[in-house]
Design brief:
single chain, 118 residues, alpha+beta, four-stranded antiparallel β-sheet, globular
Length: 118
């Protein structure tokens, strides 16, 4: 078996204008599902992947919060907790980094040129 710290992890990340809302390590969930299925012979019901369509609906029905949902891979050794800390320490740099390296699933990001009153 390979060392967990040397594996690339995939994450689903959701944030809005108020900050980080969710970080889920999809790789860890896939592995838990695989091991539980091998162990019991049945797919576990208590372990589920994040439902990105629910995330998207939440974002679409709360447009005032300008949600962004990204999927990205991280270098070996990066955990969900590391991403949370990155958002706590410097949220703007964290968001810019995820936008640069991730794949946009949904974005209601407010652009700088949107002027309400001229």
């Amino acid at each position: 078996m390979t060392d967990r710290s040397s594996q690339t992890h995939s994450f689903a990340i959701m944030w809005d204008c108020r900050g980080l809302e969710a970080v889920v390590c999809v790789s860890d969930i896939e592995q838990k599902i695989l091991f539980e299925t091998l162990k019991t012979g049945q797919r576990p019901r208590h372990i589920e992947m994040p439902n990105l369509m629910h995330w998207r609906l939440r974002a679409q029905f709360n447009p005032q919060r300008h949600y962004e949902i990204y999927l990205c891979s991280a270098e070996p050794g990066i955990s969900a907790e590391d991403i949370r800390e990155m958002f706590e320490n410097d949220p703007q740099t964290a968001a810019d980094t995820i936008r640069r390296i991730g794949h946009r699933f949904y974005s209601d990001r407010r652009s700088e040129d949107q002027v309400v009153i001229r």
